[in-house]
Amino acid sequence: MKRKITLKQIAKELDVSISTVSKSLRNSLEIGEETRLKVQAFAKFYNYKPNNIALSLKNRKTKTIGIIIPEIVHHFFSTVINGIEHVANENGYSVIICLSDDSFDKEVLNMEMLANGSIDGFIMSLSKETQFRGDFHHITEVINQGMPVVMFDRVTNDILCDKVIIDDQYAAYEAVQSLIDKGRKKIALVTTVDYVSVGKLRTDGYIKALLDNDIPFNENLIIKIEDVDTCEITIGKLLEDKAIDAVFAVNELFAVTIIKTANKIGLNVPRDLAVIAFTDGIISKYSTPTITTVSQNGIKMGNKAAKMLIERLESAEDEEDENYKTDVIETHLIERESTS
Amino acid sequence: MKRKITLKQIAKELDVSISTVSKSLRNSLEIGEETRLKVQAFAKFYNYKPNNIALSLKNRKTKTIGIIIPEIVHHFFSTVINGIEHVANENGYSVIICLSDDSFDKEVLNMEMLANGSIDGFIMSLSKETQFRGDFHHITEVINQGMPVVMFDRVTNDILCDKVIIDDQYAAYEAVQSLIDKGRKKIALVTTVDYVSVGKLRTDGYIKALLDNDIPFNENLIIKIEDVDTCEITIGKLLEDKAIDAVFAVNELFAVTIIKTANKIGLNVPRDLAVIAFTDGIISKYSTPTITTVSQNGIKMGNKAAKMLIERLESAEDEEDENYKTDVIETHLIERESTS
User: Is residue B149 part of a domain?
Assistant: First the structure.
């Protein structure tokens, strides 16, 4: 059986990136003429037709929403999906999910695939690599084709569309303030080494809370950690030096690792070390002690994103609204044993 | 814009089930003539055309695999998806995921949607409701249309297709045997009240291990629990009566709840109570004490399911193989603090 040639295969055959193939097929002037014509000729020879189904279905509604998320083994994204599903189903929509694995190429391929007539619109959270590159042409492309996009959590200012976010800066501020209210002064921020926009906002909130309370900001207490294994080593040193009495961790895996490290060297949580984690996952609920968290409210975020997309899909074409909204979901602190 | 009518809307308008609409449109003799003709007339009037895209695309390959799973906030299914993705991507396939939410109707709708030209084949785990009903017509239908299906974990003998399972009976046997080897004699099985086939197999393995070791089987030690809240109450009573010295729990939420309950009444895990959980999720790795588990090996299961599907998709049409295989993934015990 003759196989259909894919974007990926064209990229491989011609030894160029997927992004280059995608842009060349759309005749983007960003790509040099020689490459552009070569890609187009190759695609034509192998009968590659971008969006040919989409064309034939232009006025057909699929009643399906496409979701693109970075990863699936992640409680936050799972709960957002549940939130989207709930509102989608209530309104007679189905949901299709694709994973980018935090890869730019996979995000581009997924959007290409789903935009080919499978769905009416997208709800997405950007991959780390896409945020790092700052290349959003694939998203601009589907929006220009008239397909609405709602972004959540990991968003970009470079794309005009509806967005649902949490106020990461305020959430971090509130968590750190609650630690200060409990008498803690040597508060570490344990965060990841990454290119995700939310990281900077959380750091800003952490610093602001310290300064508002006249606690000097010590750069050494912002700890950027690669993975859970290095977390234990880095935190172990700080604990042994009694350099910290509280930690605000950006995820619950770091938080639970910090608690175990503290226990190993004979420190008690919360007495010697108070711990708050960002994200409300299941580990926090079931660990010993249970962990105080800043809830990201994934369900509510999913609900809201689905509502925004469906409203846009169902508004009459002649009253198309170019005024995109950014909805800020409120977070709240769930107090548990690790700070009480 | 005129909306496309969906199976669901037809079902609602005519006040019949989705299954009835689906079967009527396929002219199944299971449905009475009156209903069948009414559904067909209604669908025709609203221009509903089942699988009309699929027809136009009969010989076109999408290089996409459709996955249908019962739920997403579940570490096991997430890891299976990662396993599928890995092998699919290596072979140039993309992956689309839909959730049944353990609902029969959603499973039928998802398959209908994806079979409409979006994918080349399915990898699926049955919803609880589908297993309870024993209605698999939607799966038979896609297989008859020439679309291969691979089932994993929650499978049925009523459908001939490739399957990937674990030996649930042996896995339970091995776990209970390991508790007996450590001198435990009053071993409870904590399981769910459900219709999932694996539940019975695990119970069989539990009973066989007891009998092989000349430990009398006590029906009162098989505890069927509705949810995590009732788990605490039921187990609390058994622990206070000193009726048990070990527990084999079918999921890690039960296991961690049992450990917390034991701690509350002053019992020590593992000294007074040894605990093993089925499923290797993240809670077990991070709880205090860490929990011994029977690993379901989701990654390997996903790898294998993807390999089986891709082999079938890429075999030449003239050598189509009707000899379906059932692959049994081996489990292994991951010993941690809760039994040491």
Answer: yes
| A286 and B CB contact within 8 Å | yes
Q: Which tokens hold the place of A125?
A: 């959270």
Mutate to test the interface with B, among A118, A251, A336 (most CBs of B within 10 A): A118
Count of domains forming chain B: 3
Does the pTM of the predicted model rise above 0.90? Answer: no
Model confidence pLDDT, tens digit, residues B45-75:
776 755 444 443 445 678 899 999 998 877 8
Contact B173, B330 (CB under 8 A): no
Burial B307-335 (b: 16+ CB within 10 A, else e): bbbbebbeeeeeeeeeeeeebebebebbe
ipTM: 0.76
- Residue pair B150/B305 in contact (Cβ under 8 Å)? The answer is yes
Residues from chain B contacting residue A73 (CB–CB below 8 Å):
75, 78-79, 82
The reply to whether B80 and B41 lie within a common domain is: no
Kindly give, in sequence order, each residue whose CB lies less than 8 Å from that of residue A64, ignoring residues fewer than 6 positions away.
Answer: A93, A94, A95, A96, A118, A119, A120, B113
The answer to whether residues B173 and B291 belong to one domain is yes
pLDDT tens sequence across A98-147: 999 999 999 999 998 898 778 999 999 999 999 989 999 999 988 888 89
User: For A172, phi and psi rounded to 5 degrees?
Assistant: -65, -40
Q: Hey, what are B318's tokens?
A: 């003239």
Give the integer Cα–Cα distance in Å for A184 and A175. Answer: 12
> Based on the domain organization, do B94 and B178 belong to the same domain?
no
Instruction: Assess B96–A contact: CB distance below 8 Å, yes or no.
Output: yes
Q: Residue B153, by phi and psi: left (phi above 0), alpha (psi -120 to 50) or beta?
A: left
Residue A215 lies in a domain: yes
B95 touches chain A (CB under 8 A): yes
Contact across the interface for A73 and B79, Cβ inside 8 Å: yes
Domain assignment of residue B124, given as a range? 55-165+298-329
CB B288 to CB A288 under 8 A? Answer: yes
Closest Cα of chain A to B213: distance in Å?
A: 34
Cα-Cα-Cα-Cα torsion A105, A108, A114, A116, nearest 10 degrees, comes to -120
**Residue A52 in contact with partner chain B when CB distance is under 8 A:** no
Q: Are residues A274 and A188 in the same domain?
A: yes
| Confidence at A318, pLDDT banded by 50, 70, 90 | low
